[in-house]
Structure formats: C-alpha cells, structure tokens
Design brief:
- The chain is α+β, with helices and mostly antiparallel strands and 306 residues long.
- It contains 10 helices and 10 strands.
- The radius of gyration is 20 Å and the shape is globular.
- The two termini are 35 Å apart.
- This is HD domain-containing protein.
- Pfam families: HD_5.
C-alpha cells in the first residue's frame, strides 16, 4: 500500500521487495550501527505509546521501519493499518506527518540514510527529562507530563485531528510547562497562593516556553511552541497571556487547556489533596463555559476513559 500524501510505502512480509533498507523507532532508543551518514536505530514502544515521522526542510533521506515484535497501528491520511511482525514501510522523503501507536508492546528497527540520532534522542529527550524535573519541583509527580500527553492524544484522536496536528499535540502536550525552567524556584515551589506579582511572573512561563522550543530550531518543536504558549488561554477570553477568545486559540492548545485543568484538579499536590474523579468532572462542568465546546463535548464523552 502506498500513501501518496505521506510518501510512505507499505511492504508486507508476504510481499517482499528487493533492496529494502531497514529502519526503526520508539520510546527506548539504541543506536545499533552507523556509517556514511546512515543510522540504524532500535526502538522499543510500550502498548499505547505513540511515535511519529515528520518531514523537514531540506530532508531527502530514505526512512525505513521494520517490525520485529508486537504490532503497530499506522495512522495516515488514508486511514489506519496494523503493521505486524515482518511488515515494513519506507519513504524517500516523507511528505507529511505519520502517527504510529503501539497496539501491543513492540520493537522495530528504524533506518535513516541521513543522521538523525543525536537530534532525535538527545535534544527532545533532554527537553522531556527537563520538563519532568520541573513538574516534580512544582509539586506534581513524574507521571504528570505523560498523563497530560496521553489524555490530550486521546481527545485529539477522537476529534479527528490530522496527522500533522497530532504530532504537534504530542510534543506540545508533553512539553506544555517547559517554560517553568525560567521561573524562580521560590515562586515555582511555593506551597501557598501567589501574590499578584508572583502570579504575573508565573504566567510568563507560557511565552518563555514557546521561545525555548523555537530556539531549538527543530520544526516540530517550533510548531509545538504555539501550543505551549496558548495552553492557558480560555474560550471565554479569561485566560493568558493574550486573552484570546473563541477559535482564536489553536485547537491543540484548547485540548491541552482542558486536560491540564482536569489533571490539576485530580492531582495530589503538597498543598492539597487529590479530588475524586466524580467531583472533578462536576467542577469541569461548572467551568464548561471557559473551554472550547467541541473539546468539552469529547472530554465528557470519554469520561469513563479518563
């Protein structure tokens, strides 16, 4: 099967072709071999985890994925397809984003004819680790970022977002609070209510977060920076930093706004106990006017999966 939109070509284990190259991706990475610019990277994904392939300016590399164990769902403009052991896909170059979801724990090989491992593993991974460290300092658990990402992706997929939007949402939701690295520790770790001055400083984490991601120079992170900057905006204009109203806010930002608010209510913090799910849903209902109505409709539709 060929997806002319993304440029990816599917090869079944029962229909091999000559001269296929190997390639692979996932959450746990290991550079298996490299030479003459080509890299072979082993990936391991846990069930339910997501990974994506994206185009980039000046990128003309051959990319190839070969399934070793488990199964992987490939979401593209032509629908969904399940990749099994022995299946492969390739593109040269990939033209649009493609999303992959681990249906089971799985492993696969990702090969690129141009080097990607350093930027792929180091840059994004370091930002993600930094984000987790920041959230823990802010009183959350290490699971907070993953919870925000997983729930955001759940809503985004049910809302029918495009592959491009889902890739942006994946990065933006996980890194939504990266700007807090620039907030002084005495404010970030304060257990009580902020003064007006302290709150004005805290609010700057949205614009600072966008700058941090923009300065990486990586196209996906630069786009995700818009989500980071807007995730505290509200549909009724009561949010920050720009008091955007209605559909002026990016839809991915609107999703993160809902999920982040819900998680903040249900999370146990140093200064408050966790609120039971049923009470949290009632509180979200009372505040429904603040959030995008399409997002809230799907949020309550999926309440049993939260």
């Amino acid at each position: 099967m060929e997806d002319s939109t993304s440029g990816l070509i599917f090869r079944s284990k029962d229909n091999p072709v000559e001269k296929v190259t190997l390639s692979d991706i996932g959450l746990q990475l290991k550079l298996v071999s490299s030479g003459d610019g080509t890299e072979i990277i082993h990936h391991r994904l846990t069930a339910g985890s997501r990974w994506g392939l994206s185009p980039a300016d000046g990128w003309e590399a051959l990319e190839f994925i070969y399934i070793l164990t488990g199964s992987l769902i490939w979401q593209s403009s032509q629908g969904k397809r399940t990749l099994q052991v022995g299946d492969s896909i390739s593109a040269q170059p990939i033209k649009t984003e493609a999303i992959f979801i681990a249906q089971t724990d799985c492993e696969f090989i990702y090969v690129s004819s141009q080097p990607v491992f350093y930027h792929y593993s180091q840059n994004a991974q370091e930002l993600m680790k930094l984000t987790i460290d920041i959230e823990e300092k802010d009183g959350y658990t290490a699971d907070h970022c993953h919870n925000i990402m997983n729930l955001s992706m759940l809503l985004g997929e049910h809302m029918g977002l495009s592959s491009n939007q889902l890739v942006d949402l994946n990065f933006g939701s996980f890194l939504h609070d990266i700007g807090k690295i620039m907030v002084p520790d005495n404010i970030l770790g304060k257990p009580g209510k902020f003064t007006n001055e302290e709150f004005e400083i805290m609010k700057k984490h949205t614009t600072l977060g966008r700058k941090i991601l923009y300065d990486t120079g990586l196209s996906n992170l630069k786009t995700a920076g818009i989500i980071v900057e807007q995730h505290h905006e509200r549909f009724d204009g009561s949010g920050y930093p720009y008091q955007l109203k209605g559909n002026d806010t990016n839809i991915c930002s609107a999703i993160v706004a809902v999920v982040d608010s819900y998680d903040a209510i249900t999370a146990k913090r140093v200064y408050k106990e966790a609120v039971p799910k049923e009470d949290a849903l009632l509180e979200m209902e009372r505040s429904r006017h603040k959030y995008h109505p399409d997002v809230m409709a799907v949020f309550f539709q999926l309440a049993d999966q939260l």
